[in-house]
Amino acid sequence: MGKTGIRTVGKVSFDTPASEQKVLHNRWHPDIPFAGTIKDGETVKIECLDWTGGQIGNNDSADDIRNVDLTQIHYLTGPFEIEGAQPGDLLLVEIMDVQPFEDQPWGFTGIFHPDNGGGFLDEIYPSAAKAIWDFEGIYCTSRHIPHVKFAGLIHPGILGCAPSAEVLATWNQREGDLIAANKLERKVALPPEPTSARTLIAFYLSETCYHDPSSVFWRPEKARQLSYSAIRKEQARIFADEAAKREPTKWDRVTAPQLCIGIGSVSRHGLSYLRETLGSILEGLDDLERRNIYIVVFLAHSNQSQHEDSGAAWLRSMADSLPAYPDDREMLEVIERLEENGDYVSHARKQKIDYSVLLAECAKVNPNYVMTLEDDVIALDGWFHRTLSALRTAGRKTREMGKDHCNLLVLGELALIITFRWHSLVIRRYISPIYIILICGVFTPMTIGLFFAAGRSCMFPKQPGVSLMQKYGCCGQGLVFPLQQVVEDLLPLYSTTTDSHAAVDTFLEDYANANNELRWAVTPVLIQHVGGKSSHGVGDQLHGHFTDDMPFEYNFEMNDPVQLMHEHLAWVEELAGNT
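Above: the chain sequence. Below: its structure as tokens.
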């Protein structure tokens, strides 16, 4: 093309179905979101698939021609936003060159099967046929039609501007009038059909519900990308590096803290998340907030030097307390034996001892609440004020328990259409029986199917706030307890139990069920689980990679860091004004 460094604004894949590629669509419609942006006067490269969306392969069989899905064709790359362009402007596009892909320099010609597409000469060509043409310079040849060679003049297909809603309505009206006036046996117009569209709602769901594991649109490779967590991890690392040089603000030791945070950490044999966990808790906190928080970090080893972070300057600087196991020979022997065994049973037993150390250390400073955190989580900016707000809400809701609520389910849309159809002469003229058949037989089933395909969490997301969660309280990444419950219930429970069958989360769940305790959950979540390597070698987590069975809050990654920062600053200003 004579130019180098040309930006590719639309890149396609030969390994992914066209219907699943964000940059492709097969409708002229104003509501399709932009696939990219092009500057005025910029030279760019745009990749396209053939009109079948890549259904035809470079092989010697005509089966793909015979069986081509004609409901999934005419894919376009785009649309692209032209910076500065306004509706009504004249858009001048110069096509500099059209080339085949360097790694796939071929094309095809074919004849449809009469039962699938057909053509004007079905009686002469009763079977599907295909010829693959290979490009060599400007010429092309085919192994299926030997001794033929000609200049391969590639045409660009079709280009155009996305229509406005008014233009689209004109098109649809024009084709509808043509169909209504047709007296011939053959079809004179083929408007878009629901079965052939990569529908806007399906496109919307594919871009909205990819993070819901119960959705057919779930894309784990995209959903598990650490976006907001990556920002917080970097902020946490910077904070920890600074803390290693200069000790930041800590609990003021004047008044009892509002919150004590206990973090138990065990070696992961060369890998540690503790620095990022602790850094994300502290990064962004105002001094007024930090002075009301007491942080306990317990390196849960009989020999704490076995932990990767033992003796780290940032750890001493950031934590208010670094306890060890009590100087009890009998207990230490039990712990050493459990450490040596290292199996799940030993882990479950030792974990309760570790939590008793954390809770006892927190109880010493008499906080209002005690929070326990795993050592492989990331906290969002503003977690502290949201936690305090959630605790107030949980307290209020607990007092309000017992109120009646009523839910209504409205199922009136179809009845409304039919009522209008048969009782309004004006509407009857526009809503023909075929429209009602389409609505009842095509659009409604398709909508119902998409509804269930979208997934439970996508269709019925938890509303922001605090809600009861009396079941499935998995994994204990972050839990908060009133001090009274810690002192009167949890500490005696952890200190005396010899249970070795349930880890702490399950153990607490069983205890809460047996004692009819309330459990409240916060939405959106305040922490994200980022650890990919288990501290006790459970399943695939041993290798340090995310797996399907790992707790992961997909919506956490969609947080807006700027919005959270402004929310946090506003709360701090209000706090400062009240002190």
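Residues 433-454 form the longest helix (22 residues).
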